[in-house]
Design goal:
417 residues; alpha/beta; Rossmann fold; Tyrosyl-Transfer RNA Synthetase; Structural Genomics Hypothetical 15.5 Kd Protein In mrcA-pckA Intergenic Region, Chain A; 3 domains; six-stranded mixed sheet; 17 helices; ATP binding; protein biosynthesis
């Protein structure tokens, strides 16, 4: 739907007909989402945008609390890119002011506020990585300190008067903490208000967020009404499960794929997901059409090996964050490993102390976090030296150069003296 040409005006409150282009834009918007509120309002926003040629203002606010993004973060960024491709204005809002409060969403303890230095450093990394998904030339970058700092004490009090404590405490995480007697700091109650005020300042038409952000997004809608604006619509995206297929993707849980990880690592991690979880990743991460993914599902039902389809997904994502050649090389590397071969890009490690116990050797080569983990891997048959499986936990390794392997993906070429 091209929203850049027509310059007709539309009287407020006018119900507009819904064109095929608007229907198509709605289908693209709704793909893979959790919820769209209020859909009828959003359809009219799309129709008005088509008629007037004025792009919608699409807002995504992110507090730069962690500088490294994984594929779970890109679920909402992918949706922003799709809306960007429809011709709308994407606003990448960095919550440098709200970061100093700390988002209490889903937490049972107060989040420690970040320092200004941490916020600035994280924000730089955040946008650089987000630009691997978004088109930076068509992205408006804003910082909410632009309008939050000038509010001052008087403005904060006036803003606080627009919402009741009872409504703030409707938040599930606040309710749980209150019932449990867990402390809630006053500044945490301000967070939803400040996030909502961002929507007022930016005159947002649509705000995106994870399912855990729904309350905050609704506050923005209510505040816009108080300030005489047309309320934004809300689009929540599901939280992507990690490689284990159970917990949401998280670096702390170790079930993540980082978007700046090496191509071979990304590819191998994506190939490790289950065949059933593969479809979830297609829905939330792939840029392929719904009809094409549907065709893949029918082919698997008719007997095609799901591994073939998973390879296509892994290659698509690796190519997005690296290159076409990197995706091809990653596939070759993965196939080589699957045949028991040794990848080309393994680290080289020099150690001393020969003869060295196998547990210490694996730990010092950074292939295992501890000697106990190393010995457990030996016990499970997951350790090889030059392709030969190690079964003796008491093995002392003599001086020399050899390739150590732990599991399917960890290798090191070790020179032991």
């Amino acid at each position: 739907m091209d929203v850049s040409q027509n310059k007709n005006t539309v009287q407020p409150g006018t119900a507009l007909p819904v064109s095929d282009a608007v229907q198509e834009a709605l289908a693209i918007t709704k793909r893979g989402i959790d919820e769209l509120l209020i859909e009828a309002d959003f359809v009219q926003k799309l129709a008005r945008s088509e008629k007037t040629g004025k792009p919608l203002r699409i807002k995504l606010g992110l507090d730069p609390t962690a500088p490294d993004l994984h594929l779970g973060h890109t679920v909402v960024l992918n949706k922003m890119r799709q809306l960007q491709n429809l011709g709308h204005t994407v606003i990448f809002l960095i919550g440098d002011f709200t970061s100093m409060i700390g988002d209490p969403s889903g937490r049972n303890i107060t989040r420690p506020p970040l320092t200004r230095e941490q916020i600035e450093q994280n924000a730089k990394t955040y946008f650089a990585q987000a630009s691997l998904v978004l088109d930076p030339s068509r992205t408006e970058i804003r910082y909410n300190s632009e309008w939050c700092d000038p509010l001052g004490a008087r403005g904060m009090i006036q803003l606080s008067a627009k919402y009741t404590v009872a409504r703030i405490l409707e938040r599930e995480d606040f309710t749980k903490r209150l019932k449990a007697g867990t402390p809630i700091s006053v500044h945490e109650l301000l967070y939803p208000l400040m996030q909502g005020y961002d929507s007022v300042a930016l005159q947002s038409d649509l705000e995106l967020g994870g399912t855990d952000q729904k309350f905050n997004l609704l506050v923005g809608r209510e505040l816009q009404k108080d300030y005489g604006q047309e309320p934004q619509c809300i689009l929540t995206m599901p939280l992507l499960e990690g490689l284990d297929g159970v917990e949401k993707m998280s670096k702390s849980k170790g079930n993540y794929v980082g978007i700046t990880e090496p191509a071979n690592t990304m590819f191998a991690k994506l190939m490790s997901i289950s065949d059933s979880m593969m479809w979830r990743y297609y829905d939330l991460l792939s840029f392929r059409s719904i009809s094409e993914i549907g065709q893949f599902k029918r082919e698997v039902e008719d007997g095609r090996n799901p591994r073939d389809i998973k390879v296509l997904l892994a290659q698509e994502i690796v190519e997005r964050f690296h290159s076409h050649q990197a995706a091809q090389d990653a596939l070759a590397d993965f196939n080589n490993r699957a045949k028991g071969g040794i990848p080309d890009d393994i680290p080289e490690v020099s150690l001393s102390g020969a003869p060295l116990g196998i547990g210490q050797l694996l730990k010092q080569a950074n292939l295992c976090a501890s000697t106990s983990e190393a010995l457990r891997m030996v016990e499970q048959g997951g350790v090889r030296i030059d392709g030969a499986t190690v079964s003796d936990k008491a093995l002392k390794v003599e001086a020399g150069t050899f390739v150590l392997q732990v599991g399917k993906r960890k290798f090191a070429r070790v020179t032991l003296a």
